[in-house]
Design brief:
The complex is a heterodimer of chains A (about 180) and B (about 120). In chain A, strand 5 and strand 6 form a beta hairpin. Chain A has a single domain, classed as Heat Shock Protein 90, CATH 3.30.565.10. Chain A starts with a helix and ends in a 7-residue tail after the last helix. Chain A contains six helices and six strands, in the order H-E-E-H-H-E-E-H-E-E-H-H. The radius of gyration of chain A is 16 Å and the shape is globular. A six-stranded mixed sheet of chain A has the order 3-4-2-1-5-6. Chain A is of the alpha+beta class and about 180 residues long. The mean pLDDT of chain A is about 95. Helix content of chain A is about 35%, strand content about 25%. In chain A, helix 1 packs parallel to helix 4 and helix 4 packs antiparallel against helix 6. Chain B is about 35% helix and about 15% strand. Chain B contains four helices and four strands, in the order H-E-H-H-E-E-E-H. The radius of gyration of chain B is 16 Å and the shape is globular. In chain B, helix 3 runs parallel beside helix 4. With about 120 residues, chain B is an alpha+beta fold. In chain B, a hairpin with a 5-residue loop joins strand 3 and strand 4. Chain B starts with a helix and ends in a 15-residue tail after the last helix. The chains are: A alpha+beta (about 180), B alpha+beta (about 120). At the A-B interface, helix 1, helix 4, helix 5 and helix 6 of A face helix 1, helix 2, helix 3 and strand 2 of B.
């Protein structure tokens, strides 16, 4: 993966598949550390599946027995002196939280890339799921919440081209202190 | 700064053109968006289809959707086009430029861009 945003897109699709109603994706940069958190309220994983989920030969796909999504995110974090942690719960309070950290000064830290493009792609692909996107750096914070959007939009679908453009522009505009 | 008020304006503007989408009658463009597709560059391919379909005024006829792994990872990014009873068209090794041409010539013009299809692929 050339940019972290592609890993985000890939791993967030696991949350979609876990039938989450809300997926929160945050990227927070402070003191030279970037922390990515993908938190969902999906069905969660069994302890057994969780214990081997970063093994490339563990997957939910049916076309072949290889799954590179989480292993690639783990690799990206570890090559930049960070780490990957995953918590998951089934039953009451079910859901999964994936957290990855990166030392942004490290030579092998992949760039964040097109975060807005990933947000648009996720909303376009699952317009009936709610997403919270949060992107915070020392320069400020940008947020897009589909729940807030829905309140204003009424029955206008989130995957309408005009709405997707709005999401893209919202996340692409400069941070407050960057102007 | 972008505000939620702009969404209100979008809602007002869309009141007049309540969805004319004809259910499942139209053309379906499916982009493979599993790990393999994403790593090979499927995200810009998808966004090009979404933007161009809207720009060319094809939104009533064409829907663009995402799917998981289609099973031919070495040919990613893969795009399948389903049009009624016609045989499915599978485009392989796509990029944004090729996607533009497929919208123009195939989705709008009705002519399959054969050189991008899996049958023409030299692998």
């Amino acid at each position: 993966m050339k940019e972290l945003s592609l890993n985000i897109l890939d791993v967030a699709k696991n949350s979609v598949k876990a039938q989450a109603a809300l997926i929160e994706i945050s990227v927070v940069e402070e003191n030279g550390v970037r922390t990515l958190t993908i938190k969902d309220d999906g069905c969660g994983m069994s302890p057994d599946f969780l214990s081997r989920v970063t093994d490339p030969f563990t997957t939910t796909r049916t076309t072949r027995p290889v799954g590179m999504g989480l292993p690639l995110l783990k690799l990206a974090a570890e090559q930049a002196e960070g780490e990957l942690s995953i918590e998951s719960k089934q039953g009451e309070g079910h859901g999964t939280t994936v957290r990855a950290t990166f030392n942004t000064d490290h030579l092998d830290c992949v760039p964040l890339g097109d975060f807005a493009g990933t947000a648009v792609t996720l909303i376009q692909g699952s317009p009936d799921i709610d997403f919270d996107f949060i992107w915070r750096t020392p320069e400020g914070e940008k947020r897009v919440s589909t729940r807030e959007m829905r309140e204003v939009l009424g029955d206008v679908p989130l995957d309408s081209p005009e709405v997707l453009s709005w999401v893209s522009e919202s996340l692409n505009e400069p941070f407050e202190n960057e102007k | 700064m972008k505000t939620l008020a702009e969404l209100q304006a979008i809602r007002e503007a869309m009141k007049d053109k309540v969805s004319l989408r004809s259910g499942n009658q139209g053309v379906r463009v499916v982009v493979g968006m599993a790990t393999c597709g994403i790593a090979a560059g499927a995200r810009p391919v998808l966004s090009t289809f979404v933007e161009e379909v809207s720009k060319q005024g094809l939104s009533d006829k064409v829907t663009v959707t995402q799917t998981g792994c289609i099973g031919i990872c070495q040919y990613e990014p893969v795009v399948e086009v389903f049009d009624g009873d016609k045989e499915k068209v599978t485009y392989v090794k796509m990029n944004a430029e090729k996607a533009k041409r497929v919208v123009e010539e195939h989705l709008k013009g009705g002519n399959v861009v054969h050189e991008y299809t899996i049958g023409e692929s030299k692998i």
